[in-house]
Structure formats: structure tokens, C-alpha cells
């Protein structure tokens, strides 16, 4: 029987290899041109599951039937673990976005590989061939636990127990708009925490205690409600995976700056001070 992964969103490469050998679906979330490939892995892009409208392209599609068809076509079913790898440390957290999406749609055993593609290669995963499936079916069972809308976030701003984290680069937090945002700045009251601050030079997570110490210096604790965002919910989706695994209560604002900056400034303001 395959190991249950419900409580963890990130696993090491050796455990990932074991899951793959037991028949887990393997998804390659890397973007761009790559010269290496895990045999049997299926390429996946977060954009496939999002609207094309510039203001809402960070959100998930609302059509459950469409999502079910797309995910099933990739070999994803609710009963089989899904192992997702990215291009650490040079990626944007696309693997985290995919795992956040699957968890939010009801998959309880979707995980990121710590260290991504290279870690899998180092662990000896380079020639695994998955058995063909003829009846893959993914049933969408949306779970709002790890997601928040712009309206809900707006209504909660200023709450004593809410922490809003901006996972982008410092230049973006300060007001730069390099990725098509209609306005610059950050959500009022947000603190800056670049998502790659939790990775070492090889793209692997820093030791757990190091991460916890970093969060403590920012006065972030497990009894608070955390909302994370970026430009379109990719980098923040990755951080959801990290914080959830460490026991924090966290939601991804997937619409993020694309959506927030497209909304009326008087209702959805932005700050530019650091």
C-alpha cells in the first residue's frame, strides 16, 4: 500500500523515489527548455488550469467538469499519490502551485520533491516507467481551506490575528511592476518574505529550525491566520506548501497582484513604502 501523505506537502527525493516506484503519478512542472527528463513524468503547466483574462489569470478555473477532464487526461486520480518536481533553485515555485491546486481541488496525496529535478536524479530516479492507466479519473472536491478571494482578504485586512505575506522580490514589494501588474506596491499591512529565502544554493529547503527561526523573527506563529500572495499565486502557492507542512494555517490568494491591482484603487489600495 502506498504511504499516506496527507499531512505533508513536501518530501525528500529518496521518499519520492519510493513513491514513484510504487506507482505514483509524476508531474514535471518546469517551464522553458530542459535537457533532462524523468522518464514517465508528464509535463504540466499551471496556466492550463487558469483563466486567460489578464486580471484573473492567477485564479483557478471555475468549471469543475473541465478541471476533471484535464487532470484525468494527465493520469491523475484521487486514489494515487502525485509527485511534482520543479526546477529548484531557478524556478518560480511552479511545483508548489500545482500541489496547492491539487490539494485545493481535493487531492490529499500531492507532494513537492524537495530539491526538484536534480534531487531526483541524485537519488537515482532516471529510468522509471509508469504503467499505463486506462481509467484515470479525478473527482474535483474543492477545499477552500488553503485559498482566499480578494473580497474575503479585503474584509479581513487589519484583523489582529491576520498576517499577510508578500512573497515577491523586494523591488516588486516596493512598487515595481515587471510582470504586467496594473498598479504597483503591496497590499496594506503586508510583510515582505521572498519565497526563495527558504532555499539553499541547491534549491533544497533550509533546515526546519532555520525556517522556524526566520518566521519567529517576523512574529509569525502557528496560531495566526496567514495569507500569502505574489503576482499570480505561483510563488505564494509554493510557500503554502512549505508553511502547511510546518503546521501553519495559511491560505493562498491566487488572484494576487494581477487581480488586486486591476480592481478599483479606492476599494483595493496598495502601499509603496518599504
Task: Give your account of this protein's structure.
With about 270 residues, the protein is an alpha/beta fold. About 25% of the residues lie in helices and about 10% in strands. The strands form two sheets. Strands 1-5-4-2-3 form a five-stranded parallel β-sheet. Helix 1 packs across helix 4 and helix 3 (about 95-105) packs across helix 8. Residues about 125-130 have low confidence and may be disordered.
- The global form is globular
Radius of gyration: 18 Å
User: Structural class, from secondary structure content?
Assistant: alpha/beta
Largest sheet geometry: 5 strands, parallel
Number of helices: 9
Spans of at least 5 consecutive residues whose pLDDT stays below 50 are 127-132
Beta strands, count: 9
Mean pLDDT: 92
Would you list the SSEs in sequence order as H and E? EHEEHEHEHHEHEHEHEH
What is the spatial order of strands in the main beta sheet?
1-5-4-2-3
Strand content: 5-15%
Helix content: 25-40%
Distance between the termini: 50 Å
